[in-house]
Every structure is written in C-alpha cells, then in structure tokens.
Design brief:
Layout (H helix, E strand, L loop, with lengths): L7 E6 L3 H11 L9 E8 L2 H10 L7 E5 L3 H6 L3 E4 L6 H6 L3 H5 L3 E4 L6 H9 L13 E5 L9 E7 L5 H12 L2 E5 L5 H28 L4 H17 L7 H8 L5 H11 L2 H19 L4
Parallel strand pairs: 1-2, 1-4, 2-3, 4-5, 5-6, 7-8
Antiparallel strand pairs: 6-7
Helix pairs in contact: 8-9, 8-12
InterPro entries: 6-PGluconate_DH-like_C_sf, NAD(P)-bd_dom_sf, P5C_Rdtase_cat_N, P5CR_dimer, Pyrroline-COOH_reductase
Protein name: Pyrroline-5-carboxylate reductase
Keywords: NADP, Oxidoreductase
C-alpha cells in the first residue's frame, strides 16, 4: 500500500477522549516535515459527541468531517490511515457492519483498543478462517497512549504486525509522536508494558489523593496544597530518568530518625509496595484475556 505523505487522509473511528487528543495532535503537528494531514474524518456514537468534537477541533474545521457511527464504512473507504479508537468491547458490533471489514483490508490500521493484539485485528478483519501464515495479513500497529496525550505529554507504546512495512511503522511513530513520546516494543512485552504506561498514572494519582487526605485531616484545605504535592512528586520522578535509581533516591531522602523513614516504614507495614505489584500484574492478566474475549 502506497501512501502520499503530503496528502494523508485519516479516519478516526470512535473518536473519544484519546482519539480527540491524537486528532488534535496530527492536525497541528510538532513535526510537519515528515507527514501532513490533508483531511481528517472522525466518527462518534451520538449527536452530543459530534458537537463536542467539532468544538474541540474548531481551529481546523476546513480539514475535518465529523459524523456518527453509521458513516463508519464510508469513513474507512475514504481514508489512507484508519485509527480504531473505540472501546474494545464494541469491536464485534463495529466489525459486523456490512462492508466494514472489506473496507479495512487495504488500509493502514492503527489501533488503541486496550488488550487487542495485532493477530486479533487481522482475525476481526479477515474472519475466523484467518491464517497468520497466509497472504491475507493486515498492515496494522497496536498502540497504547496514556491520558497525558491531552497535553501532548503522553508516553505511547506501539508494536507493528509482521506484515507492516518499515514506512508505515515510521508513519505510526510520527502519529503518536505528535502527542508525546512514542516507543516501539515487541508484542510479547506489550501487555505488561502497556498497563505500566496506562495504569501507573492512575495508581500514582491514588497515592496523591491519599496524601491530600492527610493534609485535610490536619486542617489544611486540599486546593492549598494540591499543586505543592503534585509538583514535588513530578520533580522527584524526573530524577529517576536523570540517573538515580528509585531505591537510592528513597535512601537519600530518608534521613536517620526523620519523618520520611517513619512514613516509609508505615507503608511497608501496610504492604503498599506489594499491593502496587499485585495491581499491575492483575491489569496485565486482564489485558492478555481481552483478545480472547469476544
């Protein structure tokens, strides 16, 4: 499949929060030299969602078309690249629409459906008789951005299907690079790495919420300290990629007889470290199950 890099048409099927963030990113790219979006076609489930999306992308209204899901097939037919951005539990219904599978077969497909492997994408497209060794294999990239895509600070993991060309892998990297960092990883590592990227933020936010509860319990209003806690945490986290191991940092902070070591000992007593590990392993197992749940 050849794609004209200066005249790309992209269809976003099921354009929710992450789909909207990616759409906004590629319409106003940080890097406009490699690829350019000529037209963007988005489909959504309801009329209120259509209104929301048109407002969110109003700066680019001359290049966008927003319609409801009954136009999914036409959107795919008119696109070079198709981003599948709907929830994974909807996939059977979306692919069951007459003409959808057929329209998808000669497109370059990006999927941000959680837990859905590239093999499952090919099975959905070519049917139950799909043979991974046959010529009927989808050019597809499975990806998992996190919610920071909304502010173009996401970390996105992606992995291509075996049939995907080098040029299309580069195109996928460019798309996800417009909303943050994009990292290619092997699919065998995808489930655990994806939940780390997708879930770690929500687990850390739970920890932040607990810290703020302590402030409230001590008589301080939450808004007065929220930014202090968040910015302090962000600053500390940035020391890790700068070369400091988390354990070493923790030791440096925990002075003998000090407050930090007392707090850390309480967390160890409560099993917080192993609770984080167990939570991520459970999420990874759920991710592995999603492709087999039809």
């Amino acid at each position: 499949m050849g794609i004209n890099a200066t005249q790309l048409t992209v269809a976003v099927i099921g354009c929710g929060t992450l789909g909207t963030a990616i759409a906004a990113g590629i319409l106003d790219p940080k890097d406009s030299e490699a690829f350019q979006i000529n037209r963007l076609i988005c489909t959504v489930g309801t009329e209120p969602s259509k209104t929301r999306l048109e407002a969110a992308l109003s700066d680019h209204k001359s290049r966008i078309t927003v319609s409801t899901a009954d136009e999914n097939v036409r959107a795919v037919q008119e696109a070079d690249i198709v981003l599948l951005a709907f929830k994974p539990f909807k996939r059977a219904d979306v692919f069951a629409v007459p003409g959808f599978k057929e329209a998808l077969r000669d497109k370059f497909v990006l999927s941000i459906m959680a837990g859905i492997t590239t093999a499952e994408l090919s099975r959905l497209t070519f049917g139950e008789d799909y043979d991974s060794n046959s010529q009927s294999s989808l050019q597809a990239v499975r990806a998992m951005p996190n919610m920071a895509a909304r502010i173009r600070e996401a970390v996105t993991l992606y992995t291509p299907s075996p049939a995907t060309t080098k040029e299309n892998v580069e195109l996928a990297s460019w798309v996800f690079g417009q909303v943050g960092e994009a990292h290619q990883i092997p699919e065998k590592s995808f489930d655990i790495c994806a939940v780390l990227v997708g879930c770690a933020g929500s687990l850390l936010l739970l920890a932040i919420d607990g810290l703020l509860d302590a402030a409230v319990a001590e008589g301080v209003r939450r808004p007065e300290v929220q930014n202090l806690v968040v910015n302090s945490a962000i600053g500390m986290m940035k020391l890790v990629p700068a070369g400091d191991h988390p354990s070493v940092l923790r030791e440096k902070i925990a002075s003998p007889g000090g407050c930090s070591i007392r707090a850390l000992l309480e967390l160890e007593k409560l099993g917080v470290r192993s609770a984080f590990t167990t939570a991520i392993l459970a999420a990874a197992e759920k991710s592995k199950q999603m492709s087999s749940t039809r």
